[in-house]
Amino acid sequence: MADTSDFRNGLCFEFNGKLVTIVSFQHVKPGKGPAFVRTKLKNIETGKVIDNTFSSGVKVQTVRIERRAYQYLYKDDMGYNFMNNETFDQIAIEDKLIESVDLMKEGQAVEIVFHAEKEMPLQVDLPPFVEMEITYCEPGVKGDTATNALKPATLDTGASIMVPLFVNTGDKIKVDTRDRSYSERVKK
User: Fold this and answer.
1) Distance between CA 188 and CA 171 in Å, rounded?
2) Topology match between the domains 65-125 and 129-185
3) CATH of domain 129-185
4) 92: burial class by Cβ within 10 Å (0-12, 13-18, 19+)?
């Protein structure tokens, strides 16, 4: 059990019969009335983020979760297959547990979050940044660099993101997996 003073980003607990994690929280002490905690909670199963307010001192049932290093191997009819880097055990996971699944490459390192008591995978976290190669994008026009204009580009995994006008086909770029945005060009 934990109360609102134990809240931190990433804390996992049961809320209305569902597993949620805290995305962000803020302790509020108004001039009049009791203190409370404003939170943004992410449902682990659906990925939906909801706002909720807890009165100060409310107790919640925490859930112990573990993050384990895995490597993405391949996709087949069972789902996406991963290998544990320590025990070399393999596990197949459905695509609904993986956010930004089209940014995964074979051989890529990921973290899988497990429910510790039930040994059940909850979600797959990609690294914050991945390096990708652009397989197709419209050519940029010289002189179009004065604005922050973006154009669509297709990556080597088939994913489509928006990139600046100066990026061309064949360039290697760094992509932020959290919001699927262009970060920078990778130096050769």
Assistant:
1) 9
2) yes
3) 2.40.50.140
4) middle
Distance of CA 77 to the CA centre of its chain: 24
Written in H, E and C, the secondary structure of the chain is CEEHHHCCCCCEEEECCEEEEEEEEEEECCCCCCCEEEEEEEECCCCCEEEEEEECCCEEEECCEEEEEEEEEEEECCEEEEEECCCCCEEEECHHHECCHHHCCCCCEEEEEEECCCCEEEEEECCCEEEEEEEEECCCCCCCCCCCCEEEEEECCCCEEEEECCCCCCCEEEEECCCCEEEEECCC
* 72-79 average pLDDT score: 91
pLDDT score of 1: 85
What's the confidence (pLDDT) of residue 187?
Answer: 83
Residues β-bridged to residue 39: 25, 52
Model confidence, pTM: 0.76
Q: Tell me yes or no: is domain 2-62 CATH 2.30.30.30.
A: yes
